[in-house]
Amino acid sequence: MTDVKNITQLSLDYLSSIKFEDVPPEVVDRSKQLFLDYIGVALGGGYLADSSESIMNGIKTLVSGASGASQVIGFPYTYPAHYASLANATLAHSMDFDDTHQESIIHPGTPIFSSNLALAQEHGKSGMDFLLASIVGYDITLKIGRTHGPSIHRKGFHPTATTNIFGCTAAGGKLLNLNADVIQNAMGLNVSQIAGSQQFLDNGSWNKRLHTGLTPHNSILSLVMAKSGYLGATNPIEGKFGYLKLYANDEITDFSIFDSYGTDFEVMNTAVKPYPCCRFSHATIDAVLDITQDNDINHNDISKIDISMGKTGYDMVGYSADFPKNTVEAQFSAYFAAAVAALKGEYLWDSYQLIGDETLQTVMGKVNVRQDTFQHEMQSHISISTVDGKKYEQNVDYPKGEPENPVSWDDTLNKFLGLSEPLLGQEKSEAIYEFVYNLESKQSMNEISAHLIP
Fold it and tell me: Which pLDDT does position 253 carry in this prediction?
């Protein structure tokens, strides 16, 4: 069993030793599916999210005319890698539509793909290099994440930002063929860069989107400093004042997940989201859609919707029955999610136009959410009572998109095209899909740039 004292070194050993030929074909295939999903949500975030104009104007000011080789997805800008990754990751997380990992409660792909794409374009790396580095990034981020589980979330942090910086940095080091000492120094600097508070829930602010963007930006900063000889702390993950001690729970005793490096690839444990809202509302949406459509139930027929979910989900989306005042508040409301599904028979980005709608508020008033104990955090139980005295119940073990209840390549492609084609058109969207589907054969990640610009 892995010794807690060796987590950082074990991760560096894995990173140094793994080669592309060591990766099973299904892992490569899944990585490409997740990358296509990432590009789609980055494109959608750019033209749909309310925060995108502000973040792009702010980054343009910071760039101050500097040139770079790294493409901003959906915009005619090429920036230095750290700024391109800041833009792309913020955009890709702005719809809360990016991939998720249930045990760690992390969106792994957005920061990892953002830093790797920017660095690969800046340094002329191939599709195969990019894929291998991304697979490594998912593994390191999510092994750490599976070790701490929901404890990071319950302390009020957002592990998509806090845990993910280690995976971003490790992946970037792998991509650039840096030696283990340099990568260790960069990860040592990461422990002083970790940030990501859930205080954004208080007023529906855009903090969550930005600190997801700062994660790849800061990982590139740490790599540049380490390459320049700057000394970082040893044992940044497991040390006396390391990440797990400061941000998680001192009672963590099981580190066995690190023994599965190279055999249990975390991209296979990662979910694709079918709805643009917090993952903890997805089981509710699935069940309400299933029950109402299977039984031809209209929202006027409903007298009550009862939802039971675990503690982490309740703390994120179930604790407040207040009507949301903005998109972020709606994204983190199971009450809103259930009401939209019952009222419209779907859940789309356009659903946020219903904020303030009187009929929706009436349906929300029929929703009750309570905390319960389940086998895992994503499980929920939903019941719908009707005015004629009937009751329909559904237990959702895993919402759609989880590896246990997967979406197909075709589902992911349709999601991508729905986000891409309104901005880029059919020809460029299909060119992106072709590039990603054949990614391991591409000689340079710069080849995709022309397709990413409207």
Answer: 82
